[in-house]
Amino acid sequence: MAKKLAEEILKKLEASGYEAYFVGGCVRDWLLNRPVHDIDICTNAHPGDVMRLFPAHVPTGLKHGTVSVKSGGMLFEVTTYRTEGKYEDYRRPSEVSFVSELRLDLMRRDFTMNAMAMDLRGKLEDPFAGLDDLKQGWIRAVGVPAERFREDALRILRAARFAAQLQFQIEPDTLRAMEETASLLIHIAIERVREELHKIIDSPAPAVGVALLCQTAALKSWPLLDRLFSAGIPHAPRLPRLAELTQKWSLLLYGSGFGAEEARQVCQVLKLSKREKETICAFVECLTELRPHWDQPREIDWRSLLLQRGWAFCQKLDGILQACWHNSAAASDVTRSLRETYEQMQVKSIQELAISGRELSVLLDKKPGQWIQHILQHLWQQTAFHRLPNTPEALLEEARKEVVRYEH
Ligand code: ATP
Ligand code: MG
């Protein structure tokens, strides 16, 4: 569907006398029969020509020659063939120049498998033998590897990431160059580093990526991350069993012997959001308390965890425990016990209490404030496992007592 819409753009460019190709990641992924998530187009038309030909456009990156063109409600990046000038900060070229030859555009790309273009009729332009590398599962830098990593050190992490996503090997000269230039990663913004690390731990073969990070010492500029990933190697194969990134980071942290405080520091180094940081620290805190031994399930006090952290959190924590205990038949007993404990709850959440915050405020004749959340939480803890009936009368009486305790 998306491909059909993108083809309309190529057709129009060709009909107007320009060259136009699909390029980069989409060509690689089509050839590998993998799902394609963004389709990029390159052309010898200049951005001004592209904008004129396609009135429905957004000038997303004119400086770099990119115009986003609308086709059937979707946006596709159309970029003019370009080369990149000198790299000044190990990341961004100081200038880009438009060129008329496709080959020159493909030359600036990172790996041979990413330096292929395909036209409307499926004809491949492959000046660096990317297809051969793709067939053999090699990741190979275009040109002289060390020079390419010196231009843009992020490519070192991209190589490790593609190896993990595609389960490819890194060609020996390229690998050596990664080791040689690893210290230059210090110049890369941590947000970009984080995105690549996310993709590695979220890939089907994170162990491959993590091993490469260690082998090349790619993370030596961040000692905490370096230690995390080195110690995390044995646990990396467990990561694909988890659904969410916060669970993955938590398992890696716990597996590497990091406690909640060190987990917090890692989240800070990676500039994760406050929400992600809190979730990860809470998982690591629970895991540190529970100390699950690998492949050796143990009983969990779900009742107190459900009261402290709630159902959604406990389900995800159980997911992490299951990933720790893979291969063990007894592990499913732990999941069953969580479900049974949850079913025993008379009141499953604060929303199910027979009295609301607003009612409490009226009945106790007190202005709304922070106290309401405290009282509701207390009432829920009391009623959840039947200590107190969930009736307005019982709740109001308990609330009166708790308000006195809260205020003193
Ligand atoms: P994915 O989209 O799956 O992350 P991709 O290869 O498509 O992988 P993008 O970041 O979408 O990666 O980039 C599209 C193309 O641009 C790449 O295939 C490559 O040709 C080129 N490219 C991207 N980043 C770099 C880089 N740092 N150095 C050189 N070329 C790059
Ligand atoms: Mg892409």
TrEMBL record:
Group of enzyme by EC: transferase
Residue ranges annotated for the CCA-adding enzyme C-terminal domain, each copy included: 244-398
Keyword Nucleus in record: no
Sample GO molecular function, one term: tRNA binding
Keywords associated with the record: Magnesium, Metal-binding, Nucleotide-binding, Nucleotidyltransferase, RNA-binding, Transferase, tRNA processing
UniProt protein name: CCA tRNA nucleotidyltransferase
Alphabetical list of PANTHER family matching this protein: CCA TRNA NUCLEOTIDYLTRANSFERASE 1, MITOCHONDRIAL
Gene Ontology annotations of biological process type: tRNA processing
Source superkingdom: Bacteria
Residues annotated as domain Poly A polymerase head: 20-140
EC annotation from Swiss-Prot or TrEMBL: 2.7.7.72
Named cofactor requirement(s): Mg(2+)
Limits of the tRNA nucleotidyltransferase/poly(A) polymerase RNA and SrmB- binding domain: 168-223
Organism lineage string: Bacteria, Bacillati, Bacillota, Bacilli, Bacillales
UniProt xrefs under SUPFAM superfamilies: Nucleotidyltransferase (SSF81301), Poly A polymerase C-terminal region-like (SSF81891)
Organism annotation: Brevibacillus composti
Family per record: Belongs to the tRNA nucleotidyltransferase/poly(A) polymerase family.
